[in-house]
Amino acid sequence: EVDKILTNALKSVQGERGAGGFKNIYAVAMEPETGKILAMSGKGITDDGEVYDETVGVFASAFEVGSIVKMASLLTGYTYGDLQYGQVYNDTPMQIKGTPEKKSWKNMGPIDENSAIGLSSNVYFYNVFIDLAEANYSPGEPLDINPKYFDVVRRSFEQFRLGSETWLNFDQTT
């Protein structure tokens, strides 16, 4: 069933604007209480539209962390910070002294967490962390963040196996 879902999803986006580099898709379903792997699948697609098995890529390919960090950030803000359901932040570029501009793929203006997830806002989640860390953002100024908040985030993200050992042993891993 997972193979069919991934195949259909991969085929459905081919030819769509912005999907040019979308050639692989992966999924892992785990039992949340035990971490037992219930299903693991990966699919790839050739330039000719031929779908092939790419399950080995689930654990043998390296990826930049993507939007899972956004969901983990929400949970962290709800659990350890003052983030409230429906919280609105203004999605406009941020400039923190000594760093590149922080922005989303477009300026979204005032958005809540549902819009932030749906539109893949980056700025919303920067603000979640800034509030969690009890810091004050002023454009062009440095952020004064107590290092203890990085530990809070690390511990929270471990629930998603982000930044922690997986305890899975495969001969082919990156």
Tell me what the structure shows:
By secondary structure, the protein is an alpha+beta fold. Helix content is 32%, strand content 14%. The protein is built from 6 helices and 5 strands; from the N terminus they run H-E-E-E-H-H-E-E-H-H-H. Strands 1-2-3 form a 3-stranded antiparallel sheet, covered by helices on one side. Strands 4-5 form a two-stranded antiparallel ribbon. The model has no long low-confidence stretch (mean pLDDT 87).
| Ends distance | 27 Å
> What is the rounded Rg?
19 Å
The rough form would be described as: globular
* Topology order in helix (H) and strand (E) letters: HEEEHHEEHHH
- What is the helix content? 25-40%
Essential attributes:
three-stranded antiparallel beta sheet, two-stranded antiparallel ribbon, 174 residues, 6 helices, 32% helix, alpha+beta
How would you summarize this macromolecular structure in one to three sentences?
With 174 residues, the chain is α+β, with helices and mostly antiparallel strands. It is 32% helix and 14% strand.
Describe how the helices and strands are arranged.
Layout: H1 2-13, E1 24-30, E2 37-45, E3 51-53, H2 57-60, H3 68-80, E4 89-91, E5 109-111, H4 113-118, H5 123-132, H6 148-157
Antiparallel strand pairs: 1-2, 2-3, 4-5
Helix pairs in contact: 3-5, 3-6
